[in-house]
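Figure 3 (text version): structure tokens given as input.
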């Protein structure tokens, strides 16, 4: 198993991409603490993982709140003894672009997507030092690499912030054996993009724009996260893994 003996914290794990990562990490032998603000969904995922023979603990975690982070890290340490891996996966989006993009949406998106990653990183680093190293994986997006017409500019800005924050984290913590890399997915079939893939016209447009001709399934991104979390990627830090069906290659 690729994560045998590791303890991981995953944010936004109640559904979508984060739930796929929690399930995959548990199958690969990690003990998983995963948090979200959707408690009912989170507890269902927790029960499902534990019934399948994995080890997972769901915690209520609002990534914008420092105390909430301290509680999550404390749960990981008291339940499983340490923290080796953090996946900063939680994120929100607004599809209001151009003149429709509001300041309130800017603040919300920056709070969850950018400040949430900063707070999570700060919260786990002391424990990773104690463990002798660690791996932090930040879920950015292709929206952090290119501008896009039909999305709130704050979403692009927040994911761009995550891209460069990843590099600062990598540089500032390499001496402690803590690695940090970002993942840049293209369109994934989750609740976040439901309005896109449920609308036949928008679905056709995305399929046509994407060289591989479809949305990703959450597991296709989670396999990249798994590689960066595991010791297989031991010489990678500060790098960007693009998993986008070829969208940004053209
Ligand atoms: P999703 O909406 O299905 O899941 C996001 C999860 O984050 C939800 O469970 C939500 O409750 C949680 N969350 C939101 N605010 C939170 C907070 N303050 N504290 C804790 N949890 C919070 O979306 P997803 O597609 O699974 O997205 C996962 C990540 O992947 C996000 O960072 C997203 O920006 C990124 N991403 C998604 C796509 C895509 O096409 N779906 C593409 C590129 C990147």
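Below: residues designed for each position.
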């Amino acid at each position: 198993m690729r994560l045998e003996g590791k303890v991981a914290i995953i944010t936004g794990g109640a559904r979508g991409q984060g739930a796929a990562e929690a399930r995959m990490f548990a199958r690969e032998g990690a003990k998983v603490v995963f948090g979200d603000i959707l408690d009912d969904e989170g507890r269902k995922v927790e029960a499902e993982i534990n019934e399948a023979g994995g080890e997972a603990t769901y915690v209520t975690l609002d990534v914008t709140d420092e105390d909430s982070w301290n509680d999550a890290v404390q749960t990981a340490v008291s339940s499983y003894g340490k923290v080796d891996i953090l996946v900063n996966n939680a994120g929100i989006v607004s599809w209001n672009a151009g003149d429709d993009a509001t300041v309130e949406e800017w603040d919300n998106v920056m709070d969850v997507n950018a400040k949430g990653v900063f707070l999570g990183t700060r919260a786990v680093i002391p424990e990773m030092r104690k463990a002798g190293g660690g791996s932090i994986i930040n879920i950015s997006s292709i929206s952090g690499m290119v501008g896009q017409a039909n999305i709130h500019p704050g979403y692009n800005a927040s994911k761009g912030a995550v891209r460069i924050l990843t590099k600062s984290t990598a540089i500032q913590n390499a001496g402690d054996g803590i690695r940090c890399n970002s993942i840049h997915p293209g369109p994934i079939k989750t609740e976040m993009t439901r309005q896109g893939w449920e609308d036949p016209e928008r679905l056709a447009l995305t399929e046509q724009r994407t060289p591989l001709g479809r949305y990703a399934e959450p597991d296709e991104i989670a396999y990249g996260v798994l590689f960066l979390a595991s010791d297989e990627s031991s010489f990678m830090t500060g790098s960007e893994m693009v998993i986008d069906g070829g969208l940004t290659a053209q």
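The first strand starts at residue 7 and ends at 11.
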